[in-house]
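Board notes (copied after class):
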Amino acid sequence: MSTSQQDVNFKELIKRPVCFIGLGFGSGLAPVAPGTFGTIAAIPIYLLMQNLSLVTYLILTLIGFILGVWICERSAEWLGREDPGAVVWDEIVGYLITMIAAPTGWFWILTGFVLFRFFDIVKPWPICLADKEIHGGLGIMVDDVIAGIFACILIQFAYYLS
């Protein structure tokens, strides 16, 4: 079934669990800045994961990425577009990558949010290259993974300097 983002309603989305996850539990249906709303949806997930051991956190984030390739592919197929803005599972995983081993506290949660959104929106090299050259579910995910890595490095550097 091919449908546009404007045609999607929450009731329809709930009937498709993979798409419900792919569209960030509905946050990707925001009429403006769905990526930002998808990243906001990642914060409670991070809060649930922040006290896990680093190994467990990394394993869950890796599982989120691996499943995310399939989830984003299926969601994009359902919406009938290659990389629809409504598909925001990639933002959720990207934010979780940003917050790997991050210091605790709201300052760092918000700093991670701002840094991740900056890299995801501006798409400096090699993020822009990945965004243009890699397609399908993997393409949807990879640019946000790289943005998350960049943001994670900056958080660690800022914490080291503080």
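Comment from the instructor: The mean pLDDT is 93. Residues 54-79 form the longest helix (26 residues).
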